[in-house]
TrEMBL record:
Protein name: LacI family transcriptional regulator
Gene3D superfamilies on file: 3.40.50.2300, lambda repressor-like DNA-binding domains (1.10.260.40)
Domain HTH lacI-type: residue ranges: 5-59
PROSITE patterns for this protein: HTH_LACI_1, HTH_LACI_2
Keyword Transcription regulation: yes
Gene Ontology molecular function, alphabetical: DNA-binding transcription factor activity; transcription cis-regulatory region binding
Length: 321
């Protein structure tokens, strides 16, 4: 039987010190990319396998980042790309992603508490933040490292690290796109009031119309479903709307059954399939920045407190004037 490959074997093969190999395996962020890749190539060539249990005993770190799987609506889940990007970015930094589900905030807090006892994640990524979010307060109160994909709505800006997409900028671009085509009666279909994300997206539409001296009264709130999007579109068209900006692709999919000039938000695969113009969130970049902020905190390295990314408009059909 062949002898077991050791960390010393990897060091000799890569022509580096054993400490460098250890850093690559346990704290890859402190190693230069060229050296890190050389060590990883040696690990693969020699078939070296790291014992996660032994590493956790040695370093006190699990190298796990935990995040909740979001639910879908009308078969659409905009977080799939985010999770994929998060997993890839975490792996490049020497971490694995631990996924979990929870029905609501209280259930998520209970699940996090359970995960801490069973798997000891090093940090957490919160998603779908909202006003008065108890999850952030719970984690912060216990000094647990975390970052949120979503702003701390209603809380001080520097209360914890966060990454978000500028929804108002996205709907502003969408509204200008319809204005440039000649539309002047542009409606907005949003979510029920009080949603930080939804209110932010509505604000971009409102301020763009205001800048052009146009009425921002053609607005209706929904539960976010395609069915309610269709009903809201029908009512807004009856009130004179000739084009619509929607808070999500799910809502836009329903609105598209009523009026041809609709812009969605999230640029889901469904939007691409039906030819819907939609605001695209840079989810891969958002995931990478979440990992960067969280791993920087775990390594006591200085990092930004928050990152606000700009979305882009994916035009699939030119609107009619």
């Amino acid at each position: 039987m062949a002898s077991k490959v050791t960390i010393a074997d990897v060091a000799r093969y890569a022509n580096v010190s054993r400490q460098t190999v250890s850093n690559v395996l346990n704290s890859p962020e402190v190693v230069k990319e060229e050296t890190r890749q050389r060590v990883l190539d040696a690990v693969e060539a020699l078939g070296y396998r790291v014992s996660a249990a032994a590493r956790q005993m040695r370093t006190g770190r699990s190298r796990l980042l935990a995040v909740r799987i979001e639910t879908t609506q009308d078969g659409m889940n905009v977080f799939d790309r985010f999770l994929h990007g998060l997993t890839e970015s975490a792996a490049r930094s020497g971490y694995r992603v631990l996924l979990y589900t929870a029905a609501d905030d209280r259930a998520e807090i209970d699940t996090i508490d359970q995960l801490l006892g069973e798997f000891e994640p090093d940090g957490f990524v919160l998603t779908s933040t909202h006003h008065g979010d108890p999850r952030a307060a719970w984690l912060a109160g216990r000094g647990l490292p975390f970052v949120s994909f979503g702003r701390p709505w209603g809380a001080p800006e520097g209360v914890h690290p966060w990454v978000d997409v500028d929804g108002a900028s996205g709907t502003e671009t969408a509204t200008r796109h319809l204005l440039d085509a000649g539309h002047r009666r542009i409606g907005f279909i949003g979510w029920e009031p009080g949603s930080g994300v939804g209110d932010d997206r509505r604000a971009g539409w409102e301020r763009t119309l205001a800048a052009h001296g146009l009425d921002a009264g053609l607005v209706l709130e929904t539960d976010g479903s395609s069915a309610q999007g269709q009903a809201a579109a029908r009512e807004l068209v009856e009130r004179g709307a000739t084009a619509l900006v929607c808070v999500s692709d799910s809502v836009a999919l329903g609105a598209l059954q009523v009026v041809p000039d609709v812009v969605g938000f999230d640029d889901t695969p469904v939007a691409a399939a039906v030819g819907l113009t939609s605001v695209s969130q840079p989810l891969t970049e958002a995931a990478a920045r979440c990992v960067e902020l969280l791993t920087s905190r775990l390594s006591d390295r200085p990092a930004a407190t928050h990152v606000l990314l700009t979305p882009s408009l994916v035009i699939r059909k030119e609107p009619r004037s």
